[in-house]
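Researcher: Here's a chain I'd like modeled. Treat it as a single chain, no partners, no ligands.
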Amino acid sequence: MKNLFAYMDTLSEAINLLQLPFKFSTSYMLFGSFLTQVEFHKSKYASEKNALFDNINNYNQKYSELINNCRNLNSYKVLEDRSNTGFFKTFVLCYWKTIIPDSLKSKYSSSYWNRDLSLLKQFIHDEKIIDAYCDFTILWHDLYKEVEEKQSDLLDKLNVLWDNAVAKLDNIDQIMFGGQREYSFSRKFSPIMAEKMHTSLINGGFIDSGTSLDDFCAVFSLPHGRTSMKPIKWIKLNKGVKNKKINKSALIDLLTLLGYTQEEIIGKEGSKYKRLNSCFEIKNNSFKANDFSVQMKEGGNGQLLNVKSEYHEELENMLREIGFLCWL
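Model: Modeled as a single isolated chain. Structure tokens:
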């Protein structure tokens, strides 16, 4: 998967370089002590000015090279790797290195740039350094846009690939489980979102830490490496000190927040709880009628259930933090 690794490594390198001016440990590499020291008169020494000028120019060259490298990235080349086993899983793991941090997003149109430019003008009084820093500012913004565009381009291609794969196979669960759609939940999110959700549910103590990402993806009809599906162990306990039982309502709450309807969660007459029992395990006990508190709607199979467990806000906040609720 050399094309995928090359693409992701270039974006990761670019993001690391974009963060350089905003971290104390790395901004010193760019400016030396000029913008951090108290006694700015030291910056008047010609040798230090020359060193600063050379330093900014060196970084300008690095930015220019990375901009060109980003522009040469070809998302179609990455798709050539898709026949490799574990392509999507590898992409999900690499993707984290290419996420633009919120701290950088806020700097794109920030007053930070004017602040440093004012400091340079005030204390250095050297036009060539001012010009070099102005070039640096332009190159920083150009590199940011390249990373943003290349990341978006690759995600668009992969989303089309996922959609086409699901359309061709008439849904992954149909192939994996003999065409019985009641055995898994329909696809509501991407593998990237699945990775975030899987991690958050484990960290929040909702699902067993031994739940594999492949099994999680299989339950929600996403690309995975399984030939069979193991149910997800739901382990969240009630909050009360005395009643330390598994909170089944929290699971129904989560599925409702994910957009699944009454029929998708509970099932039709004659096959109620079949999907739930195929996809989730609670201390080896099956779901059955009336063993959790949910207000059912008469004729409301296509509607969302009216359920708010004691973990509703926690689940809602978790889905908002990973970006899922922004999609609804």
